Amino acid sequence: MSSPTARRRGPYAGTAQRRQAILESAFEVFARVGYRSGSMRDIAQRIDIAHTTLLHHFSSKSELLAGVLELRDEYARPALEAEEVGAGLLRRLVEVVRRNQGTPGLTELYCILSAEATDPEHPAHAYFRARYTRIVAQIAAGLEDLAERDELREAVDPVQEARRITALMDGLQVQWLLDRESVDMAEQLRQYLQRLCVPVI
User: 36, 92, 109, 143: most buried, per Cβ within 10 A?
Assistant: First the structure.
């Protein structure tokens, strides 16, 4: 009969596979109970590894959180890092939101962590501040490009509108998580963006 240690080593023998398993477990725990209430021991127990094994890969809870946030960003990175601007960028925003509808767990985790991270002492506070700054700048650049092409409606301030769009995206996520049957985040965002510019979104 194999020992418990041997059984643990089987499914997650490789370092990369084990790190991935830990991140996915942490994601599930943080999405369910939030970062503050989720414990390292709970995360380790979900994949049947020792607490010390988890600490070998992630020395602290904040380091683990950083890994989870990076995992979430991997889903949106291909769309947001494309070089398209103007109306193309706005279309990509709708695409990202549509993808979020297909990954409700990730969307829920984002909502929970972003709310918790308003506390300056939260380990993800700096991450979310930087993320919002980056997203607002990207959207504003897209709107400014539309303005240069005379494709942006009059009286639209690119920076202020970029903040409104970001707020709309986050607000739609909460509404969708509460009632996924009656809210189509991507379509709501597309209709709003269409009012701002001449090209079809």
Answer: 143
Structure tokens that stand for 113 in this block: 């962590």
d(CA 39, CA 92) in angstroms, rounded, equals 36
Residue 7 has pLDDT above 50, yes or no: no
- pTM above 0.70? yes
In tens, the pLDDT along 85-109 reads 678 888 889 988 998 888 787 788 8
100 vs 198: CA distance, rounded Å: 26
More confident residue, 32 or 76: 32
For each of the domains in the chain, give its residue range(s) and CATH number, in order of start. 4-59 (1.10.10.60), 68-194 (1.10.357.10)
Task: Assess whether pLDDT exceeds 60 at residue 12.
Answer: no
* Whole-angstrom distance, CA of residue 22 vs CA of residue 67: 10
Orientation angle between helical segments 87-101 and 61-80, nearest 10 degrees = 130
